[in-house]
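Hey L., structure's done. Input below.
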Amino acid sequence: MDIDNTLLEKFRRKMNSSHYFVMNQYRNQQGKNLWNIICSCMDWIEVAVGGLSYIHLDHKNPNIASLNLLQLICAIDLIKESVHQLYRVFELEYPFKKDHMVFQKEQSDDDYFKHIRAVFGVHPVNLKGKENSRYFASWSTKKIEGDFSAYVYSNKVGVKDQLYSIMIDDLFEYANKRYVLLEEIIIKVKRDFLSHQQKHKEIKINRPQSPLSHLKILKKENLERYGEGQAYWHEIEELQRLYLIDISSFDIPTQAMLEEYRKELLIVIKEIHQNLQIMNIKELLTYEILDPLRSTGHSYDLEKLLVYLHNPEPTYNTRVFARVGLENMVNKRKFPKNALEYEGDKLLIYLNAWRRRIIRKE
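Output:
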């Protein structure tokens, strides 16, 4: 029997959706990184669920069959413990705390499963009983009762041996009941994100006159609404770079072209503001204004140049390759010769402004 791994795939997508909403909410909860716990649980559930179909219980060698049963039980234990841990992280009430429906024992299913795990291989040579008594289990076998059985012996003279048996279908039923609880976590995350969206839609984002002041506010709102590095974080940083450049060293005609470009960038800022306000993050319709060089067509030289231009702290090799690319594009008349006079942020704003002027004339 197997467990359907499509639910885990769905769960992973939800954990990573909405610009990593879960990661940003849980990576710092009162000084605790709960996101790391979530990732660990997802990984080990994947290991367990993905490996179940490779565990063969019908091996001809009884020793190997016994070890394979232990592997199956440990895989199910990974699923149970991981789901239980996720329920604690998301502050959900675990519904099977006192459930007896699978194994039909006086103990809860979870407590009885711990006993199964111990007897059938996790620590069979050191089982605790009442009043400090000790028990020791035999290897598991398919030839006595149920699908697999094991005898448990006491360390006290005259105490009768006990036989424990398990059904494989019961183990999978136990595992599946806990595995499908991932659906409840998915529902909670959807509900939490909708609440998060509604809360921030109602918080009006200020709109100061200064572009740099406006961008500072948008970056703060982006952080609170979606987290660092998410949504429009990188676009806002790029805009800040473009507005922080001192253009006074350019000649007068070029200054006019750069100011014209900065006025056009206000449209980009406006769109980011609107989308953050209504919590609707999508590809910017005005992205070509922010990165107009992409419209010149793909080439090796352009890619090397863009890596340099969009990296605030480029390496020596990046600068060298970019310079060669720029010279090649100037020689091919893709860029004006004046571009060779600039580097770094000044080259970025010059080429952007020049390209936007060309586009507006086309």
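The chain has a mean pLDDT of 93. Residues 62-89 form the longest helix (28 residues).

-- N.
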